[in-house]
Amino acid sequence: MKTVRESTTLYNFLGSHNPYWRLTESSDVLRFFTTETTEPDRTLQLSAEQAARIREMTVITSSLMMSLTVDESDLSVHLVGRKINKREWAGNASAWHDTPAVARDLSHGLSFAEQVVSEAHSAIVILDSRGNIQRFNRLCEDYTGLKEHDVIGQSVFKLFMSRREAAASRRNNRVFFRSGNAYEVELWIPTRKGQRLFLFRNKINLSTAAVAKTRFF
After folding, report:
1. At the N or C end, where does the chain have fewer CB atoms within 10 A?
2. DSSP string, 99-158
3. 60 and 144 assigned to the same domain
4. How far apart are CA 163 and CA 171, in angstroms?
5. Domain shared by 160 and 91, yes or no
6. How many independent structural domains does the chain possess?
7. Could you tell me if 8 and 72 lie in one domain?
8. Is the model's pTM score more than 0.70?
9. What keywords were assigned to this record (predicted)?
C-alpha cells in the first residue's frame, strides 16, 4: 500500500524546492530539472489522465495540483506553468504545503499575464531571447490572420521578416537582451491587408515563473 508523505518537499526528491518541469506532446513522462539548461535530473511516468490535465494548460500561466508517485509514495505538488510552444508545456513545481513558494511562482506568472491583458489595446508580441514567440495577443491575430496557438514557439524572424531584416533584428535582439534598454523601431510587417509599417516599443519583462526574459513588441 502506498503511503502519503505529507511532510516531504521536492527537495528530498531533487535537491531543489522549486525544480523546473517539462512535458512534451508525444510522451507522458514528466521531466524535472534543477536548472533550465541542464539535462533532466529525474523523470516520472504520468498516467494518461495526468498528462492530459497538464496539456490543457494554455499560453497563460496557471497552476494545478497533482499527486505524483515518487519511490512508491504519493507526493502532492503544485505545477505552475504554461504551454511554451506547439508541442511542449513547462514551468515550476512546488510541494503542496510549500505555500510561499507556490504563491511566489504563481504571482510572478499571473502578473506577467495581467500585464499583457492590460496592454491588449496594442498589438503585442512577446519573445524570448532567441526570438521565439511566447505570446501573440488578439490584436496581432486580427492584423495577421494567424492564431496564437499556431505561432507559439516559432521564430518571429522567419515568420515576419525578410532574410536581411531578420539578420539586422537578430543583432539588435542580442544587444537588447544584454543591455536591457528599452528602444523603439519601425518594421514593415505582412498583414491581412498587405504590408503595414508598425512602430515597436521594446522592453524587458523579468519573470521567474515560465519566462526568464521576454521582449515586448
Report:
1. N
2. HHHHHHHHHHHHHHHHHHHHTTTS--EEE-TTSBEEEE-HHHHHHHS--HHHHTTSBHHH
3. no
4. 13
5. no
6. 2
7. yes
8. no
9. Hydrolase
Q: How confident is the model at residue 105 (pLDDT cuts 50, 70, 90)?
A: low
Range of the domain at 186: 119-216
Query: Do both 109 and 128 map to the same domain?
Result: no
Lowest mean pLDDT among 45-49, 89-93, 165-169, 174-178: 174-178
Query: Which three cell numbers, joined as nine digits, stand for 192?
Result: 491581412
| Separation of CA 100 from chain center | 21
Tens digit of each residue's pLDDT (9 = 90 or more) over 163-179: 888 898 888 888 888 88
Contact between 32 and 43 (Cβ < 8 Å)? yes
What the block records as the C-alpha cell of 87 is 508541442
Is the pLDDT reported for residue 206 higher than 60?
A: no
Mean pLDDT computed over 192-205: 83
Q: Are residues 16 and 108 in the same domain?
A: yes
At residue 63, what is the residue type?
S
